[in-house]
């Protein structure tokens, strides 16, 4: 059975084609809004640990602000090497609360 945890409220979600970071227990979660669809993933880039949520969304990909590695928010895959993945988490919105399954 899936266990969802409240991450934030719907009003705190990032605007279209941007990302934002949220604390969740001992993790930082990046929520990216790609064309109005929300994706949650680990906030640390696998290259050097850059804060993904501080990057930009461009052509449906989240670009790390430190060294421009691009990530697919839906799959967590790096665009240059699909074998490299950051963890992604299911997201749902219930009664104005944003829930993630960690």
Summarize the helices and strands and which ones pair or pack.
Elements: E1 4-9, E2 18-24, E3 27-34, E4 37-42, E5 56-58, E6 61-63, E7 70-71, E8 88-89, E9 91-94, E10 97-101
Antiparallel strand pairs: 1-10, 2-3, 3-4, 4-8, 5-6, 6-7, 9-10
Q: Which residues form runs of ≥5 with pLDDT under 50?
A: none
Summarize the helix and strand pattern as letters: EEEEEEEEEE
Q: What's the main sheet like?
A: 4 strands, antiparallel
Total helical segments: 0
Query: Going across the major beta sheet, what is the strand order?
Result: 2-3-4-8
**Distance, first to last CA:** 12 Å
Oligomer: single chain
Q: Helix proportion of residues, in percent?
A: under 10%
User: How does the helix and strand content classify structurally?
Assistant: mainly beta
What share of residues are in beta strands?
over 45%
Report the principal-axis shape: globular
Average pLDDT taken over every residue: 96
